[in-house]
Amino acid sequence: MPELVGIGVGPGDPDLLTVKAVKAIQSADVIMCPASKEDRPSIALSVVSSLIDKSKNQEIVKLVFPMTKDKDVLVETWKKNAKIMAEKVLAGNNVVYLTVGDPYLYSTWIYMHREIEEKFPDVKISVIPGIVSMFTFASKVGVSIAEGSEKVSIIPSCYDLTTVKEIAKNSETMVFLKDGRYFDQVIKLLKESGFPNDSIFAIGQDLGTENEVIRKMKLGEVNDDTLTTKYFSILVVKRV
Ligand SMILES: C[S@@+](CC[C@H](N)C(=O)[O-])C[C@H]1O[C@@H](n2cnc3c(N)ncnc32)[C@H](O)[C@@H]1O
Asked: DSSP for 111-157?
């Protein structure tokens, strides 16, 4: 029976896909992937491009998800793309949908899954998890995300950070995802919420790619040159 498989392709290095993900991608009839604009490449697709055998002529469909916080635009986009996806499966194709990292962490897959489950209940859906960017980063910098009784907070740094000060006071580790362009506000917030200067501070950008940047220091040593400015950035801060 044809099905839709949501696949986590990991953080950028094609060697960090699961065997199950590779098998599903290579045997699919249709490979779907997200892009922020029609004329922009899909990062998820670029991660797996070396694994795709072009002689098989698998159909590749790029679905555009604009980078906006406008809820009406987002809902319209989710409905439109979910319909395209569901109709391909109902026409008898095995479809995979690629997402960076894991499909269940800040991913477009979450909305696709929800919409298709509700509007197209006949579509069989399964999910193959992927290696999450923050764990890739933890292994690269040798910093544990949590140990013993520690509490961890995961914060999307491009949203309203005013409530995060209270969370900071009660977290041993904080992971900031989604957009390095807001990391200057994060540093200010950490200092205002009393995160100690000797806390471990690590920042990563474009992990698993040839443009990878990694910096690790104490929070008190951070200056303007430490910060990254790209969307694909991660910041981890941890009390010692
Ligand atoms: C929309 S979220 C997707 C998260 C993804 N589903 C995961 O499991 O890691 C995108 C954010 O994930 C982080 N990210 C994902 N891959 C990354 C990479 N290769 N290098 C740095 N950050 C990455 C960045 O914070 C980026 O802004």
From this structure: HHHHHHHHH-TTSEEEEE----HHHHHHHHHT--S--TT--EEEEET
The CATH classification of domain 133-238, taken from the options 3.30.56.10, 3.60.20.10, 3.30.950.10, 1.20.1530.20: 3.30.950.10
CATH, domain range 3-128: 3.40.1010.10
pLDDT digits (tens, 9 = 90+) for 88-138: 999 999 999 999 999 999 999 999 999 999 999 999 999 999 999 999 999
Residue to substitute in 46, 106, 112, 136 for testing ligand 1 pocket (most ligand atoms within 8 angstroms of CB): 106
Which of 134, 211, 232, 235 for a ligand 1 pocket mutation test, highest count of atoms within 8 Å of Cβ? 232
Residue 230 binned pLDDT confidence (cut-offs 50, 70, 90): confident
Output the pLDDT for position 159. 82
Taking the complete model, does pTM exceed 0.85, yes or no?
yes
